[in-house]
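Limitations

Structures in this collection are predictions, not experimental determinations, and the ligand pose is part of the prediction. Treat each record accordingly. The example that follows, with magnesium ion as the small molecule, is included so readers can see exactly what is and is not provided: the inputs are given verbatim, and the output is the predicted complex.
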Amino acid sequence: MKYIFSPHGEHALIDFIDNQTLLAFDFDGTLAPIVPRPEDACAPTSMGRAMTHLTEVATVAVITGRAISDVRARLNFEPKYIVGNHGAEGIPGLTDKTGDSAEIAVWERQILAAWHTLPQGVKMENKQHSLSLHYRMTSNRDEAKLALHALLNQLQPSPRIIGGKCVVNLLPENSNDKFDALLALQRTERSSKALFVGDDETDEVVFRKALPDWLTIRVGQKDNSAASFYLNSQSEMALLVQRIDRLIRAHK
Ligand SMILES: [Mg+2]
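Predicted complex:
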């Protein structure tokens, strides 16, 4: 992993970014800072402005674990595409064929029946195509994570589990993920290249399976991440967006 604002990173951006590049971003921890309560997350107004500016010259997509209806008002800009529920919602051509909500309801019932085995502070969120269990507000997060995984191992049918920052996400076994989402968007747009910026476990599938014509950036340096580049923190995102914007305008 290399720092994107190093000479090497700058080189990669210059080589890679032009008006044929599809630009895709995760939301929580990427466009918006992580906050104690997920329901308070919002892209800062300055980020909304920078992204609005970017949408004038580039194809922009947001690929998030949130439901589309949840994230839309938090963006402060309008991207061409919003893919929600980790890829189960909003992929052109594949939209909503996966993410069987019947399974979600079954798991929700099973989890509620065993709710007493979970520590206080765990919050369940039914997002129709996926189910999230947040444990940021528990007093001992390691214990909460163990208790959650013990419970999730017993669910029938077995869900696909994607970890995150103080959250576990349950999706149907055959559901799309963020990699499928980006690939489908790139094909739909016939973009020669794609950039993806994310910060979380749920983004690693994109980093890991990235095609040669993709550039991947992780918010936060991490030893075992498969992303090619990193930003030090979410607060550097505005700088990155402005840099990308200038490079595209220079190509026009
Ligand atoms: Mg994230």
